[in-house]
Amino acid sequence: MGAPARDIGFDQAFLKKLEYLHVVARRVFAGRLRAERRSRKAGTGVEFADHRDYAPGDDLRYLDWSVYGRMDRLLLRLFEEEEDLHIYLLVDASASMRVGDGGGKLRYAAQVAAALAYVGLANLDRVSVLAFGDGLRARLPAARGKGRIFKILDFLAGLQARGETRLAETLSAFVHQTPRRGVVVLISDCYDPGGYEDGLNMLRYHRFEPSVIQVVDAREAAPQLRGDLEIVDMETGALRQVTLSPRLCEEYARRHRAYCEGLQAFCSSRGMSYIRADTAVPFEDLVLRVFRMGGFLR
Fold first, then answer.
1. Is the pTM here over 0.70, yes or no?
2. Of 62, 91, 110, 203, which residue is most buried, by most CB within 10 angstroms?
3. 142/88 Cα distance (integer angstroms)
């Protein structure tokens, strides 16, 4: 199914880069992770948080006897308990992701997803990887621990770029099939004629923490073609006769830039992390930029 792992770029050199990225990420996140992954629960926690009145049936081990001695009140100690962070990596495998050399944008997206997954697994987070196009196509169940990276690499190496992009349908299916909330990293070119707004808003409304990595290629951002051409939509197969003049190409590049900037502004206005990933930039440099921005993997 799909291209072998070597075509995606998952060789020994790639694995060494993953370990390097994990080391860097550990330094960047040092001291931040613990505080950002807590939820308040009574019982076997790790740090005192608050009191509440004792109720019949509560565990007597958590009564605060010092408060009882001072105030003659039975109060139960509450704690903050660390919970696993659930990370969902949604990788766009629609036909437009074929653009580019050596596997195109899909190859780049898979490498970025692999790097983020490895760091999450190494931090003992629960990482799940999903592929989508006109809907959810495949899902790798949540796993933890660095040893699970090979299953993720096999999953990513088997992806094929085909079909249309339908973000609203995809993300609607995702939220209704995923009861456990967590961080969602959408890795996509976001080329959906129906728009990205409804899908991203759905993630927010269902209390996920969405981030967007928009993968772009220079050939689609500023095409160099000229003359009378028949162009074909990679996803729908629609044909159009065009005459590509320098002026028309400049206008296209302007509109493409405006589209990307609009997506960035939409994310920023709603507190979602966004980064534009140019496939000309080595994936490891992009991932380091993601870590230094914060907000993607907490």
1. yes
2. 110
3. 8
CA dihedral 165, 169, 172, 175 (to 10 degrees): -50
Mean pLDDT computed over 268-293: 91
Q: What is the pLDDT of residues 149-200, one digit of tens each?
A: 999 999 999 999 999 999 999 999 999 999 999 999 999 999 999 999 999 9
Alpha helices in 32-141 (DSSP H): 33-36, 65-71, 104-122
Q: Tell me the C-alpha distance between 290 and 118, whole Å.
A: 14
d(CA 46, CA 43): 9
C-alpha to C-alpha distance for 60 and 19, rounded to whole angstroms: 46
Interatomic CA distance for residues 270 and 237, integer angstroms: 34
Instruction: State whether the Cα torsion 106-107-111-114 is positive or negative.
Output: positive
Alpha helices in the chain (DSSP H): 5-8, 12-29, 33-36, 65-71, 104-122, 149-157, 167-177, 197-205, 218-221, 246-269, 283-293
Domains identified in the chain and CATH numbers:
5-32+84-293 (3.40.50.410), 38-82 (no CATH)
Burial environment of residue 250 by CB neighbours within 10 A (0 to 12, 13 to 18, 19 or more): exposed
